[in-house]
Amino acid sequence: MTFAEYNNATLQAPDPGQIARRLERWFARHQRPLPWRNGYDPYHVWVSEVMLQQTRMEVVLPYFERFVARFPTLQALAGATEQEVLAAWSGLGYYRRAKMLRAGAIEVVARFGGTVPSTVDELLTIPGIGRYTAGAIASVAWNRHAPIVDGNVARIVSRLFAIEHSLGTPALMNAAWQRATELVDACKTPRAFNQGLMEVGALVCKPRNPSCLLCPVANDCVARATGRAGELPRPKVKAETRELSIALYLITDRKGRVLMRRESGPLMNAMYHLPHGDTSLLTGSPLAAARGELLGTFRHTVTTRRIEFSVYAGAVKQHPRGEYAWIDPEALHDVPHPSYVRKALRWLP
What we know:
It is globular and about 75 Å long. By secondary structure, the protein is an alpha+beta fold. The chain has a three-stranded mixed beta sheet. Helix 2 (16-30) crosses helix 12. The chain starts with a helix and ends in a 5-residue tail after the last helix. It has helices at 3-10, 16-30, 42-51, 57-70, 74-78, 82-89, 96-112, 120-123, 131-141, 151-160, 170-186, 190-203, 222-225, 339-344; strands at 242-250, 258-262, 272-273, 290-302, 305-315, 324-327. A hairpin with a 2-residue loop joins strand 4 (290-302) and strand 5 (305-315). It folds into two domains: 3-225, Orthogonal Bundle (Endonuclease III, domain 1), CATH 1.10.340.30; 242-347, Alpha-Beta Complex (Nucleoside Triphosphate Pyrophosphohydrolase), CATH 3.90.79.10. The longest helix has 17 residues, at 96-112. It has 14 helices and six strands.
């Protein structure tokens, strides 16, 4: 049964005001004790939203605690170097987020006196803040009536209103933004409503096997009423996965330092990588190194690339020119690097 058939049969569409009230009450009772909810400091909310983009909550929590301990205020973040920020972000992935967060902090200090703006229009003028993040900061930090749509929200409203479009399509996102706007406009407390919407998506209305019996808006859901909760939203076409094989070289000096190269390409830019063999993943020519013993192999995934790394002992006759540096493994936390580097360093003598 489609939404139109359901609406014609029941003569009643889901009521945004009723949905909003139920989600606000549910959030008041079931919200998780997350660190950025202690006072809703706008800077902390901003950092959390950026970290949570494409990253699971359980991964983000320890990084958030360390990051705000290292940069306790927006001014501290704005005054840090890019390398310091990337080092604090190392291992979290998608490093462009960290660069844009720092750039945004610099902009807020310069244009807004260090106070994070409270309106969506002002927030959208800040580097790195898009429509979702602007809505999240405005509603969660400042309690403004601003809609938000991420993957969780798109899934919930797709089921609530039986939106037929596929995941990842502009049609679904446009419809989701329209419904999210109707819902937040009907709520009493945007901070509670939007977080309730996200919490239900994370904990109850999951992509597979949604827990409809625990859902506070199950009685409002067209997909549940029509037996389609497991079918909506329609699946997206998956991006093709690429299989890569890359040789890495562990090259050390007499002090035990490891030779690394600062990447300058579009992927993981400004991060320090181990010298590598021929690959299209990283920029720069392969290092002219003498390949020694194969120390081990491991697999690692970067976006749609599944990579098998082969780690070799290596040697060079002279210090390479360019963006190479000798890095102390004990001080790796001070150097921006992708998480695969630590996996490779397990074979250091």
